[in-house]
Amino acid sequence: MSWGVKLELAQNYQKIGIFMSAYELMRTVAMDEEAVKCLFMAGRQSQAIEMADDVMKRPGMKNFNLMCLVGEMKSDHTWFERAWDESNGRCAKAMRNLGRYWFFENNFDKSIECFEKSLALNKLYPEIWFTLGCAYMRNEDMKNAIFSFGNVVRIDDRKVEAWANISNCYIKTKKYFEAVTCCEQALRHNKKAFKIWSNYIMFSLETFQFYKAVNGVRELLRYNQYEHINGNLLLKIVDCFNKKFINNQVHEDDPNKSLALPVSEVDFERHKNQLYKFFD
User: Fold this and answer.
1) CB 183 within 8 A of CB 175
2) Collapsing DSSP states into helix, strand and coil, what is residue 210?
3) Which residues of the chain have pLDDT under 70?
């Protein structure tokens, strides 16, 4: 069996959870880091750590990713710091792992610093941008949080959670129209994100976007999500109708407020019929 065939077979074994068979094959093709991973995934942590230590004792052996793996297995963040130092600041994985460590320790300043260093080396890690955005949110830095989540959706615009978090950041900065737009992007990829539908309705009401709010309620009803709908919400919809079509109010941040015109009698009757139809 050739080297390439053994490697491919070992990788397939890994995918289906036959870790010890994968380990044996990884050993024969000298894929030490992957062999250590297989042992670890097979529940043989002490054997995996022992093998990793043996590999790193070899003369001239500097496997920084393996150092990171040892840190993960031992739950010891100092291994990530060692990998970073010994790589002269070139091991992005070390900073990714260290960033995660500090994030779950609730030290968001250090977490941000580590993630920024890792992303300076390799920006194509949407999950790191996402966690960085969460760290900025925890630090109440909404501008940088929006930038971080924005990089997530620039890499993959199907990331619903990132769109939802951008929306929440905009709400924190009172940019309601931008929040509505982000909710729309999220819902375009997941129509069953009912919490986002609920936010979408509330943000639409805040910006006097009556028809968007009504459409959101109809979507929730279509999926039988009655727990998101109550009398208070229906009163807010009526209030939104009154503000927009009776009092001719325009939200101060509406990008089209300069184009707003008073509602004619014909248009008012049409809008009123839509309101009655909604409650029917």
Assistant:
1) no
2) helix
3) 1, 60-61, 257-261, 280
Contacts made by residues 102-105, CB under 8 angstroms, sequence distance 24+: 102/77, 103/131, 103/134, 103/135
Q: Do 113 and 132 meet the contact criterion of CB atoms below 8 Å apart?
A: no
Eight-class DSSP state of 242: I
Give the Cα separation of 78 and 112 in Å (integer): 18
Contact criterion met (CB below 8 Å) for 95 and 111: no
Q: Single out the residue of 55, 63, 128 nearest to residue 96, CA to CA.
A: 128
Say how far apart CA 86 and CA 91 lie, in whole Å: 9
CB 177 within 8 A of CB 257: no
Task: Note the pLDDT of residue 47.
Answer: 93
* Positive or negative: CA dihedral 196, 194, 162, 94: positive
DSSP count for the chain of H helices, then E strands: 16, 0
Q: What is the pLDDT of residue 261?
A: 63
Rounded Cα gap, residues 163 and 52, in angstroms: 40
93 vs 76: CA distance, rounded Å: 15
208's torsion region: left (phi>0), alpha (psi -120 to 50) or beta?
Answer: left
